[in-house]
Every structure is written in structure tokens, then in C-alpha cells.
């Protein structure tokens, strides 16, 4: 059965194309357009309450790819956006494509920092990493087979003025499910799809384990920094010592220099590791996006269950009225017993209404069922896509982490070998 | 881009403000407004290396202070002359290490040869030392109990403190400065033909009175200096004749106490030893006793340090394998240093330490006799203030001060590094398993994540080994040298005392303005003492400097090596999981 497009939603991509990631990519915006977030700038302005505020604006540059193949450089379009606009875009996507695992934004506030200084949002290092994260977000959306076709997204990249209004005009906020409603559904749903239940547990545990990992990694980085930096002291004391030595002096002095090099090397090493941490963070936030899809399913399922329950109760009512038997207790039934029966006409009218409602309800149930099945199908397709992406990306991240470690070890060997050589000349 | 504050104090960790460079495309155009945040900040240079190395003043190799023309005992001259000739010959061969001392001793030998008769300083060789030559007054267990030991050869009935010393008597090893007792030792010390010279020196002219290098009653004598040179050459030429090892620690549990003994093995061809091989067990107390004895009997020499005596009972387990092994190494080093020393290795107490079955009996005897010595045992006369240290010794003193300061700093840095490494290790131990937990959640990523976890575990092990090695091998040697410097400074002070006494007495005489034909003997003795001390100290300093250089070279190379090994282990671990990570799963 073909998925029935509900209003405001794009059709889910047919299942077969999802297995071939590259196949889709051809249709993606990312292939047609080069997107970068190239700069970040501090701005001051007035906010909605006419109070002065400082914020950072990011420059988004886009350039059509095709013309490059012809050997010509096509013009670069650019516009500035601030973080809150990115958030708006994402919220729109979340509401509009609830069956899609929507790529996450980089963290709003610096977290899992390994030294206290970069916890500040205005810290240049944080801003820089956020810039990279935002670019990554845009690229993820642009390479998603479904999301990349969204007009609002396209305007975000290309239309500087009036974009906010355009987004608000879609009325997506009205479609957003309330948190409370979602929570309620989570507790009360009786028969969610087992896969989603498992997925929910998986995403919870993934969040937990990656958080833990990031926390410990930050502490590890802290300690490693300390170890390297203390070696810098050797540099100084060897130099001082060499001043009073004759034969030993030269060797000591040059060894001291290598100790300085060693101590300084940790900065680059840890900076590189931050990129690894950012890769992990992305998937930490992705877990939340996964969770959102599960929640949507639960909501829809609960909705369905409620509708079914409602239908059943109406049918029952109808039956009772028709047959005059009361199978279940109802206030109406009681009062009518106490205060006298209704007239047949009244009863007929009620039955008629009920029958209408039942018919409506059945149609609604049918369409909800359909919706639900659609949702499950398309959501699951995207989840499979996501899983493959996740496995690929995390493998790459682990490999690059191992490569970083290897590089660090090699540097260490180099420095100490140099130092040993100096010592041997003492 | 990084602003690094180098340490003005050794310990605090400084944070750097990171402004990371942009990994992606550089901006196509400069920003229009506002403060550009992307511009790369230059890394501020650290404070300049403030301590450019100024070549230190060359170790003063002043010619041996020529004493006022003393007369030497007639019989000595020949020997001295022969020795001097030998020394000159060697100097001509250009051995750099001993060149200065060879030259010095050659000139001194010459100087001393010039002396006429009459005044016989304490420098005279023992065999002909005259009773009137008062011994230098050095605290000497060198004024060792003449009766039992010295007479062992001459008086067979004399009680021997060492029942197991074998049929032959121990040759008397008189304290170089204990000239007065030499008369008692005379007969025993006449040159005996059966005293073997150390092998390999046969080609050198060494027919000194009794053939042993420490025969002379004064270390400052040319012959003893030359003999020291000869020994150095021996060691150079690998013709050592004494080998000592400390190993095999064992725990002894007694009612009163528990302690560790170490096996001390000696292999030697020296005539001073009755047997070619010895194996005895000694505990720390015994080493401590030996060191004290050496300090008493050879106050002009630098005695190597012992590892720390006291350990805080609660903190350090003195029976743990690591502690015992560290101590054993230090004790081994201690004995080896003595073995290598041309004067100390012939010390009688050392001999007894290496050979006696019952050291305690000997100890008791020694102590009893020492108390009889009474008045002039204490070498440090005290109460005299030195006006100024001669340049070369002042230089040594300054050097030692700075040296021990720097070592102290290095010790603190090394400790700090170990501490930081252990804290890093604690975090790593938590880090690794999280990957494993994650692997449990995943399907396709399960193996790679497990691999990373195992890898980190391997790095933990490697780091643990590194920290252990540094604690056990690096720190103790540093501390040893700090102790060494301290004891050396004390020896310098003693030397000052001796010189001060001499100068004071000399002044007193000058003030009296008596027209005496010769300098009174006690002033003469002081002068001799000064000369002896200076000569001994200089020679010891030179050998100490050389040994120190070799020791530190080895120590620091060892440190570098351990770090290299640590990184190599980690490298292997990470390289081995790359193929695991890159493994393509089978397509479903």
C-alpha cells in the first residue's frame, strides 16, 4: 500500500532507493551545491525586548557545483545567520518530518569541556567549533534524500530577508506536539511497535554511554595535559644545570630543548582530539533525534488506540440503545432508569447521531491506521539509513582517533629519541 | 595562537586559551563588519631560555701545591723517584684523564725529591716512618688497634678478631696518615716479597715498600698519588682485581625484629685477601657501620652515600619487593664505588666487611678500642675559622651547591610527573571500559569498540610500567647523588678546618718571632695535613666528576629509553587495531 501523503508532508522515498546511499546522493542538494559556513562574527543588536545583546553571526556561503565542472567559477552567494535561526530551521524540520531522524545542531552551550576556560559561549575556540558544527549540520540536511528537497531549507541557504516570516507562515508551530501530550502517550500506549520500543531503549543507552565517554575523555585530556606540561620544567632545569657543567653541558642543554618541544606538543594533540569529541557529540545529539521519532510513533499509536477505544465505546452505546440492554454502567443509563426512559424518538435520534459518529470514527480509524503504518514504514526506512550512516561515521571517527593516537606515540618516540641522543653525548 | 605561560613555579598547571585553526576553507572574502573571530592568533613565544650556558670555569688543575722544602726520609727517595719516573713516563703517553694529576704528581715528586734531609713530614712511607713524626691526628680507626691486627703477622699469639681470616695474617693496611702507629707496624710492613702486585701492572715500575698502592702513610705523597693513577689505568685497561656484588635479599624473622640481609660476594686476586672468593651476608646496619668506619678512617676522601636509612613505616613497605630491590641496587652501587676507589678499596674495614663471618664481633672490638683513643681522635679540631677558601675548593663548593639544588629540582619534577601520570592512569582505567560498554549496545560497531577498549587497556599497562620504572630506577639515583653532594660538602668543610688550624698555628709562630732553625713540628704536621687533604680531595673530586658524568649519562639515557619503550608499546597497540577498525562487515 502506497503511503498516503498527509498535508504538509513530503512523500517518503520509496524503500528500494534507501539501500543505496550513493544513489540518493545524486539527487541531493549537497551534490548540486557547495555549502560552507565560512565565518563567525560578533555582533551587537537589539533583541525583541529592545535590549542590547551580543551574539555571533555565521556566514553561510553557497555556490552551485555544476558550473565548476565547466571550468568556471560560479558566483558565491552568502548571507549571515545566527544560531537561533538555525534552531528555528531545525524545529521546523522536526515538526514537518517527524518520521525522519533530523540531524542535530552543535551544542548550544559548551559542555564536556576539559579545561574551564572554554565554557564561555563567546570563547573563540568554542565559536570556531560551533561554526564547524553548523556547517556539518547544513551538509547533513543537504545530503538527506528527503530533507534536502525542502523549500524552507533552500530559502534558509539562499534568502536573507524574510525567511523567518516564511517559516512562521507555514504554521508548523501549530502542528507541534506538546511535550506533555507526548509524555502521556509514552506512559499509556499499550501496543507500540516492538522495534520502536527497542530503538527507544537503544537511544537512551546510547545517550548515556556517549555522555559518560565524553566526560571521562575530558578528564583524560586534562590529565594528559598536565603530564606533558610538567616535562617543560625539565627544559628549564637542564638548561640551568648545563651552565655549571663542562663536558655534560651541551648534551643537557640540547636535551632540555627537546623537553620543551615535548611539553608544547600536547596543545596540538588535544586540539585534534576535540574534533573527535565533536564527532561523538553529534551522535549523542542524534540519539535525541532518534528518541523523537520513537516518541512520535508512540504518540500516533496512542492516538490510534484512543480512537479505537472511542469507537468501540460508541458502538457499544449504540448497541445498548438499540437493544435496550445495558451492558456497561453509564450515567445516562442510570438516570434514565431513575428518571424515566427516553422516548423512542429521542432514542432514535441518539442512535442516528451515534451511527454517524461511528462511521466517522471508522473512517478516521482507518486513516489513522494507514497513517500509522506509513509512518512506521517511512520512519523505519530512515532509521535504517541512519544506522548505516552512524556505523560508517563512527567507524571513521574511531579510525581517525586511532590515527591520532599513533601520531602522538610517534611524536613521543621522536622527541625522546632525540633527547636520548643528546644524553648520550654527555 | 596559544598563549603558554611557562612555569615560574615548578608545579601549577597552566591553561592555554585555545583558538583553534580552521580546518575548512579559508574565508573567500574578509568579513565586512565586526571583529573577525577567525583570524589565526599567533602563539606567543614562551619566555626565552634565560640560562644560556656559560662555559663554567675550567676545573682548576693547579699544580700540586708545592710544600716548603721538606726533607724526606732517605730511604723513601728512591722509591719515590722510581714512581715519579714511571708517572712521567705515563704522562708522556698522554693519558688525558690522569694527565693533570700525573703532571701534578710528577712535579710534586720532583719537588719532594728536592727536599733535603732532616725534616721528615708525615709523608714518609710507612716502613721508615720515624716515631717523632706525629700522626696527623686524623680521627683514625686508622689508629687502629695495633695489637691484634698489626701484630698478626709478627705476633702469632696475638688474639685475632677474625677467626676465619685464614692461616695468613691480614696485611696491615695502615691509615695513610697514621704515621705514629707505623712504628708498631713496622716489622709487619716491611716489604714482603710474597705480596703480589695487582696483575697487569707488572710492566710498570711499582716496587714500593710493600707493593700496595696504599702503603704510604700519606695519601698526599707522590707515590700514593701515582698508585692511584696506576689503579685508574688498571680499571681502564680492565685489569681489575676486585669484584664485589650485592644480591639475593632474604628476609629474616627473629623474635626481636625482622630484617633483610643481602649476600655480598667478593672475587679477588689481591694479596690483601686470603681467599680468592668470599660470600657473606650483610644487613643494612652493616653497610651503615662500614660507611661510618670509612668516614672515620679516611676523612680526606669522599665516601659514597648509602640509600636512606629510615623509611616512614606506615607509608613505605620496607619488605616489599620494589623497596628491597631498590635498596639492593643502591647498596651494590655503594660497594662498587668503594671497590673502584684506589684508596678506599684497600681500607681494612672494607676488607673485613667483605670477608668476616662474624662482623659483629669485629665491630664490638673496634668500638671498644676506639673509645680508648680519647683526646686527639676527633680529627676536626674545630674552633678555627678559615679566612678564605682557596679558589679551587671554593669553586668545588659552589659547584656542589648549585648541583645539589638542581638535582633537588629534578627530583621534584620527576615526582610530579609520576604523580600526574598516575592520575592520568586512573582516568584511563575508567575510559577504556566505557568503549566496551558501548560495544555491548552495538552490532556492527561492537568489535571496533571492543578493540579500542582493549587498546586503551594495553596503554594503561604500559604507563604503569613506566611509572614503576621511574620510581624504582630513576628517583633513587637522584637522591643518592644529593646525599653524595651533602657529604662532599662536609668533607670540604673539614678541609677548611684543617687549613684554618694550620694557618692559625703558623701565624702564632710568626708572631713569636723566634729565630728557630726550623718550623715547629706541630705546625709542620698541620701543613702536611693540609697538603694531604687537598691532594686527596682533588683527586677524589676528579674521579667523582667523571663517575658522575657517566652515571648521569646512563641515568638520563635510561629515562629516555623507558619513555621510548612506553610509546612503542602504545604505538603497537594502536597500530594493531587499525585493520580491525577498517574491516568491512559482510554485506547482509
> Mind telling me the C-alpha Rg of chain A?
31 Å
Q: Strand order across the biggest sheet of chain B? A: 1-2-3
Tell me the structural class of chain B: mainly alpha
Low-confidence blocks of residues of chain A: 1-25
The structural class of chain A is: mainly alpha
User: Hey, roughly how much beta strand do the residues of chain A contain?
Assistant: 5-15%
Shape of chain B: elongated
Family (chain B): Belongs to the sorting nexin family.
Pfam family, one (chain B): BAR
Keywords (chain B): Protein transport, Signal, Transport
Protein name (chain B): Sorting nexin-30
Give a description of the structure:
The complex is a heterodimer of chains A (426) and B (588). Chain A has 426 residues and is mainly α. Helices cover 68% and strands 8% of the residues of chain A. Chain A is built from 13 helices and three strands. In chain A, α10 runs antiparallel to α11 (249-323) and α11 packs antiparallel against α13. The longest helix of chain A has 81 residues, at 344-424. The model of chain A is unreliable at 1-25 (pLDDT under 50). The two termini of chain B are 48 Å apart. In chain B, α1 (74-92) runs antiparallel to α2, α2 (96-114) runs antiparallel to α5 and α7 runs parallel beside α11. By secondary structure, chain B is mostly helical. Chains A and B meet through β1, β2, α5, α10 and α11 of A and α10, α11 and α12 of B. Chain B: One of its GO terms (cellular component) is early endosome. Chain B: It holds the Pfam family BAR. Chain B: Residues 55-70 have a biased composition (Pro residues).
Amino acid at each position: 500500500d502506497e503511503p498516503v501523503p498527509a498535508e504538509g508532508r513530503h512523500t517518503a522515498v520509496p524503500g528500494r532507493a534507501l539501500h543505496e546511499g550513493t544513489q540518493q546522493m545524486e539527487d541531493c542538494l549537497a551534490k548540486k551545491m557547495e555549502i560552507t559556513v565560512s565565518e563567525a562574527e560578533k555582533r551587537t543588536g537589539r533583541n525583541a525586548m529592545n535590549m542590547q545583546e551580543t551574539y555571533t553571526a555565521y556566514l553561510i556561503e553557497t555556490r552551485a557545483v555544476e558550473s565548476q565542472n565547466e571550468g568556471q567559477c560560479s558566483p558565491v552567494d552568502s548571507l549571515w545567520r545566527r544560531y537561533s535561526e538555525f534552531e528555528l530551521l531545525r524545529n521546523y524540520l522536526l515538526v514537518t518530518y517527524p518520521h525522519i531522524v533530523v540531524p542535530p545542531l552543535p551544542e548550544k552551550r559548551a559542555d564536556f569541556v576539559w579545561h574551564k576556560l572554554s565554557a564561555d559561549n563567546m570563547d573563540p575556540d568554542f565559536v570556531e567549533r560551533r561554526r564547524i558544527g553548523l556547517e556539518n549540520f547544513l551538509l547533513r540536511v543537504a545530503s538527506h534524500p528527503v530533507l534536502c528537497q525542502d523549500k524552507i531549507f533552500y530559502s534558509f541557504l539562499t534568502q536573507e530577508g524574510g525567511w523567518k516570516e516564511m517559516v512562521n507562515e507555514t504554521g508548523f508551530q501549530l502542528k507541534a506536539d506538546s511535550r506533555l501530550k507526548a509524555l502521556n502517550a509514552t506512559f499509556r500506549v499499550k501496543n507500540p511497535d516492538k522495534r520502536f520500543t527497542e530503538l527507544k531503549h537503544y537511544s537512551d543507552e546510547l545517550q548515556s554511554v556517549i555522555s559518560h565517554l565524553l566526560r571521562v575523555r575530558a578528564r583524560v585530556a586534562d590529565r594528559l595535559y598536565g603530564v606533558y606540561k610538567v616535562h617543560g620544567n625539565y627544559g628549564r632545569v637542564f638548561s640551568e644545570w648545563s651552565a655549571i657543567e663542562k663536558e655534560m653541558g651541551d648534551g643537557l642543554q640540547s636535551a632540555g630543548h627537546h623537553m620543551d618541544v615535548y611539553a608544547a606538543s600536547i596543545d596540538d594533540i588535544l586540539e585534534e582530539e576535540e574534533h573527535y569529541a565533536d564527532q561523538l557529540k553529534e551522535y549523542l545529539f542524534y540519539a535525541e533525534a532518534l528518541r523523537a521519532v520513537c516518541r512520535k510513533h508512540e504518540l500516533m499509536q496512542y492516538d490510534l488506540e484512543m480512537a479505537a477505544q472511542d469507537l468501540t465505546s460508541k458502538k457499544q452505546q449504540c448497541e445498548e440503545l438499540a437493544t435496550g440492554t445495558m451492558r456497561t454502567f453509564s450515567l445516562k443509563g442510570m438516570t434514565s432508569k431513575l428518571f424515566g426512559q427516553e422516548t423512542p424518538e429521542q432514542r432514535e435520534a441518539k442512535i442516528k447521531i451515534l451511527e454517524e459518529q461511528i462511521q466517522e470514527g471508522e473512517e478516521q480509524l482507518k486513516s489513522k491506521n494507514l497513517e500509522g503504518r506509513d509512518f512506521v514504514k517511512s520512519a523505519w526506512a530512515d532509521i535504517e539509513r541512519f544506522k548505516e550512516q552512524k556505523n560508517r561515521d563512527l567507524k571513521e571517527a574511531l579510525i581517525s582517533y586511532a590515527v591520532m593516537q599513533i601520531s602522538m606515540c610517534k611524536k613521543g618516540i621522536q622527541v625522546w629519541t632525540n633527547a636520548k641522543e643528546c644524553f648520550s653525548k654527555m | 595562537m596559544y598563549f603558554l605561560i611557562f612555569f615560574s613555579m615548578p608545579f601549577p598547571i597552566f591553561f592555554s586559551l585555545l583558538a583553534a585553526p580552521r580546518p575548512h576553507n579559508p574565508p573567500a572574502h574578509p568579513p565586512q563588519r565586526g571583529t573577525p573571530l577567525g583570524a589565526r592568533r599567533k602563539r606567543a613565544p614562551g619566555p626565552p631560555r634565560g640560562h644560556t650556558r656559560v662555559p663554567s670555569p675550567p676545573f682548576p688543575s693547579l699544580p700540586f701545591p708545592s710544600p716548603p722544602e721538606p726533607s724526606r726520609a732517605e730511604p723513601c727517595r728512591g722509591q719515590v723517584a722510581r714512581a715519579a719516573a714511571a708517572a712521567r713516563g705515563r704522562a708522556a703517553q698522554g693519558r688525558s684523564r690522569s694527565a693533570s694529576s700525573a703532571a701534578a704528581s710528577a712535579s710534586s715528586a720532583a719537588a719532594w725529591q728536592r727536599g733535603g734531609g732532616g725534616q721528615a713530614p708525615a709523608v714518609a712511607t710507612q716502613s721508615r716512618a720515624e716515631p717523632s713524626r706525629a700522626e696527623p691526628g686524623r680521627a683514625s680507626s686508622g689508629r687502629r688497634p695495633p695489637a691484634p691486627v698489626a701484630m698478626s703477622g709478627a705476633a702469632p699469639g696475638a688474639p685475632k678478631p677474625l677467626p676465619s681470616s685464614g692461616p695468613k695474617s691480614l696485611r696491615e693496611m695502615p691509615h695513610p696518615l697514621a704515621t705514629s702507629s707505623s712504628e708498631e707496624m713496622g716489622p709487619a710492613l716491611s716489604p714482603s716479597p710474597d705480596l703480589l702486585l695487582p696483575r697487569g701492572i707488572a710492566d710498570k715500575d711499582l716496587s714500593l715498600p710493600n707493593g700496595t698502592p696504599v702503603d704510604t702513610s700519606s695519601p698526599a705523597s707522590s707515590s700514593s698519588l701515582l698508585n692511584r693513577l696506576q689503579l685508574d689505568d688498571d680499571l681502564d685497561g680492565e685489569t681489575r682485581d676486585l669484584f664485589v656484588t650485592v644480591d639475593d635479599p632474604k628476609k629474616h624473622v627473629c623474635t626481636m625484629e625482622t630484617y633483610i640481609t643481602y649476600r655480598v660476594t667478593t672475587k679477588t686476586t689481591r694479596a690483601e685477601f686470603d681467599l680468592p672468593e668470599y660470600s657473606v651476608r650483610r644487613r643494612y646496619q652493616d653497610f651503615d657501620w662500614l660507611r661510618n668506619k670509612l668516614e672515620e678512617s679516611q676523612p680526606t676522601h669522599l665516601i659514597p652515600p648509602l640509600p636512606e636509612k629510615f623509611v616512614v613505616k606506615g607509608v613505605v613497605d620496607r619488605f616489599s619487593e620494589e623497596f628491597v630491590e631498590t635498596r639492593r641496587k643502591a647498596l651494590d652501587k655503594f660497594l662498587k664505588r668503594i671497590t673502584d676507589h684506589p684508596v678506599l678499596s684497600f681500607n681494612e674495614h672494607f676488607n673485613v666487611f667483605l670477608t668476616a663471618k662474624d662482623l659483629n664481633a669485629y665491630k664490638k672490638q673496634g668500638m671498644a678500642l676506639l673509645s680508648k683513643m680519647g683526646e686527639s681522635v676527633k680529627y676536626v679540631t674545630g674552633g678555627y675559622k678559615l679566612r678564605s677558601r682557596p679558589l679551587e675548593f671554593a669553586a668545588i663548593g659552589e659547584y656542589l651547591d648549585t648541583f645539589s639544588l638542581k638535582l633537588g629540582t629534578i627530583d621534584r619534577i620527576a615526582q610530579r610527573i609520576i604523580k600526574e601520570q598516575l592520575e592520568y592512569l586512573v582516568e584511563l582505567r575508567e575510559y577504556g571500559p566505557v568503549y566496551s560498554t558501548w560495544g555491548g549496545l552495538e552490532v556492527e560497531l561492537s568489535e571496533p569498540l571492543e578493540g579500542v577498549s582493549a587498546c586503551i587497556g594495553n596503554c594503561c599497562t604500559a604507563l604503569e610500567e613506566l611509572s614503576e620504572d621511574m620510581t624504582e630506577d630513576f628517583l633513587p639515583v637522584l637522591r643518592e647523588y644529593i646525599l653524595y653532594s651533602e657529604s662532599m660538602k662536609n668533607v670540604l668543610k673539614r678541609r677548611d678546618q684543617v687549613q684554618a688550624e694550620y694557618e692559625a698555628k703558623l701565624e702564632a709562630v710568626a708572631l713569636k718571632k723566634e729565630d728557630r732553625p726550623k718550623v715547629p713540628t706541630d705546625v709542620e704536621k698541620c701543613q702536611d695535613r693540609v697538603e694531604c687533604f687537598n691532594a686527596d680531595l682533588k683527586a677524589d673530586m676528579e674521579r667523582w666528576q667523571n663517575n658522575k658524568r657517566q652515571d648521569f649519562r646512563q641515568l638520563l639515557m635510561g629515562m629516555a629509553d623507558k619513555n621510548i619503550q612506553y610509546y612503542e608499546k602504545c604505538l603497537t597497540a594502536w597500530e594493531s587495531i587499525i585493520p580491525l577498525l577498517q574491516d568491512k562487515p559482510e554485506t547482509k
